[in-house]
Each structure stands twice: as C-alpha cells, then as structure tokens.
Amino acid sequence: MKNIYFIDDDPVFIYLTRRMMSSSRTGFDAKEFTDGELAIDHLRKISDQPDLLPDIIFLDLSMPVMDGWEFLEEYSQLRCSLSKNISLFIVSSSISPEEVERSKTYAAVTDFLIKPLRAGKIEELLAAK
Residue 94: pLDDT above 90? Predict the structure, then answer.
C-alpha cells in the first residue's frame, strides 16, 4: 500500500490521476492538500511516524497561500528530520525550461513531470520502491 500526497489545487488533475491509480495493481491511500502550507504543517506533525508519511508526493508549483517553490524551500529544511525517504515529483502544466532547471537545484525533487500524467507513468511510479 502506497501513501500518496497530492499538493495541488487542481481538482481535475487529482480526480483523473486517482482514477488511473485505481486501475493499478498497487493499492494506495491518497491525501489532498490545496496549498503547500497545509501540507508542510501536516508533514511537520507526522515527521517521526514513517507509517503515516507519504511514499510519493505530487507537487504542483502554482497554488494559493504557499506555492510549490515555497513548499520546496520549507520541505528542504524539514526533509532531514523525516523518518522516511519520500519521492517528490513536481507536476506542472508548464513546460518552462527555466522551471525544469530550477527544480534540479532541489535535492528533494525526484523528477519534473508534465500534466496530465500518462497511465503508464503512474503505474511505473506506484510500482517503484
């Protein structure tokens, strides 16, 4: 069973991605956060509980309150105190080379994925680890 966190304010992306995950052979439990601040606060509260921490985070860059870049700054500081290694994927509808390059400056970022995600890619991510 994979714990998945969606940090994204796009309900259509979350709905479609959940639907594709549902057809996977890998079970999952997903939590949704509509902004980075809600997610980082939650991660701080459960940082020492590996069973509650996500295996995968899908992070959007453009959100209200705390955007994805601000979340990454906070998460980078929190990351070393987490009791689990988490795969963090930036998911964006932007294909800006600048954003892709900027994402590479964060050690916490596993990969930069373009929305919408393909079913094959979702299956691959769920099967990993």
Answer: no
Tell me which amino acid residue 81 is: S
> 9 pLDDT exceeds 80?
yes
Buried b / exposed e across 25-51, counting CB within 10 Å, b at 16+? eeebebebbbbbbbbbebbeeebeeee
Question: Which H or E element spans position 20?
Answer: helix 11-22
**Dist. CA 90–CA 47, nearest whole Å:** 21
pLDDT of residue 129: 62
Q: Give the CA dihedral 50, 52, 54, 55, nearest 10 degrees.
A: 50
Distance, in Å, from the CA atom of 31 to the CA atom of 102, rounded to the nearest integer, reads 26
Give CA–CA dist 36/100, Å, rounded.
Answer: 19
